[in-house]
Amino acid sequence: MSALTSRLSALAALTVAGGLVLSGCAGAATPATSSDADAPSGSSEGFPVTFEHMYGETIIEEAPERVATWGWGATDAVLALGIVPVAVASMDYGGGDNRITPWVEDALADLGGEEPVILDNASFELSVEELLAADPDVLIAPYSGLTQEEYDAVTAAGIPVVAPEEAVWSTPWRDVITETGKALGLESEADQLLADLDQQVADAAAEHPEFEGTTIAYAADDVDTFYLYLPADPRVEILEDLGFVTADAVTALDTGESTFYTTVSSENLDQIDAEVIFTQVDSEDELETFLTSDRTKIIPAVSAGAVGAIVGEENVAAISPTALTLPWILPDIVEQLAAATAVARG
Fold first, then answer.
1. How do the domains of the chain map onto residue ranges?
2. Res 45: pLDDT
3. Quick one: pLDDT at residue 224?
4. Which end of the chain has fewer CB atoms within 10 angstroms, the N or the C?
5. C-alpha angle 271/275/278, rounded to 5°?
6. Residue range 44-185, CATH number
């Protein structure tokens, strides 16, 4: 498995996203609730709450006050709901030297309070010892690679765990937000947060009616392997929410090797007949290679220059939607798509 696919599987199909042309400089989301980092997460009136998940059942008896997160998206959801976690997973792709993504840094600065413990996530293995040292009263990890052994060790210490719903790295991004809200006693706030995020996408679509019905393929070129992302990928879902239609060629070329991507051999790249190509790369050099290589230029949209691209690790990580990444990266995505669509439409 390539480095690109490993990142995808681990962080959101990355889905953080493994691995278009602006750097992400859009403003971070403002947390949705009180900025009092020491406040309890929510009202105790809605408790206990029960979660069914791949490892069984979890009951949270009362509103947690010391929240730990693991995986992708849960940290962002907790912060967007106005709570500062006591421990979070390090972000080793897109997190910079301090292993915290810029949108999380912005939210922490807005909320104030004590900075969370950074749990080492370099190998995607949870150190239960590190976690317990932070003294949490809940672990929220619905989109993660949490193993049965890790789950058993944390729950044996008396800490309830919100585990992945059906399989590791598979819980839909919207469910991450709703489950986090439920765990914190902030269900209505989570519903409003999702409504606000959906409205941001709807507003962007309304501002760009040219997106409606334009065919698109979300692609990435990783050394000797060319990837197309399928409609099940949450990043493709955002493109479709903006009005784009996944090109028929994408599903026609699907080999069934994954739920969220397929690989395409070099001799079949000319079959990708989408009007617009959207891609992600770690650097400007990689983008130049994508745009100019003999291999990729046989794709009609690449040859025509109808390519939207997000460049840089933190920006690529942000494409995988969460409560904080979507507003952070959406303006850049929209700007790139608008330019590519203008080329495609002549």
1. 3-24+208-344, 44-185
2. 74
3. 81
4. C
5. 90
6. 3.40.50.1980
Is residue 244 within 8 Å of residue 211, measured between CB atoms?
yes
Write the Ramachandran bin of 99: left for phi over 0, alpha for psi from -120 to 50, otherwise beta. Answer: left
Q: Which two tokens stand for residue 238?
A: 């955002």
**Average pLDDT per run of 10 along the chain, which is 346 residues long?**
41 36 31 41 79 98 97 97 98 91 96 94 95 98 97 98 95 97 98 98 98 98 92 95 98 93 96 98 96 95 98 96 98 98 96
**Radius of gyration of the chain, Cα coordinates, nearest whole angstrom:** 20
Tokens, residue 109:
């600065």
C-alpha 326/C-alpha 89 separation (Å) is 19
Per-residue three-class SS string for the chain: CCHHHHHHHHHHCCECCCCCCECCCCCCCCCCCCCCCCCCCCCHHHCCEEEEECCEEEEECCCCCCEEECCCCHHHHHHHCCCCCCEEECCCCCCCCCCCCHHHHHHHHHHCCCCCEEECCCCCCCCHHHHHHCCCCEEECCCCCCCHHHHHHHHHCCCCEECCCCCCCCCCHHHHHHHHHHHHCCHHHHHHHHHHHHHHHHHHHHHCHHHCCCEEEEEEEECCEEEEECCCCHHHHHHHHCCCEECHHHHHCCCCCCCCEEEECHHHHHHCCCCEEEEEECCHHHHHHHHHCCCHHHCHHHHHCCEEEEECHHHHHHHCCCCCHHHHHHHHHHHHHHHHHHHHCC
From its phi and psi, is residue 113 left (phi > 0), alpha (psi between -120 and 50) or beta?
left
Closest CA to 9 of 23, 19, 21: 19
CA separation for the pair 157, 139 (Å, rounded): 12
* Cβ 5 vs Cβ 14: under 8 Å: no
Fold assignment, 3-24+208-344: Rossmann fold (3.40.50)
Q: In this structure, which amino acid lies at residue 103?
A: W
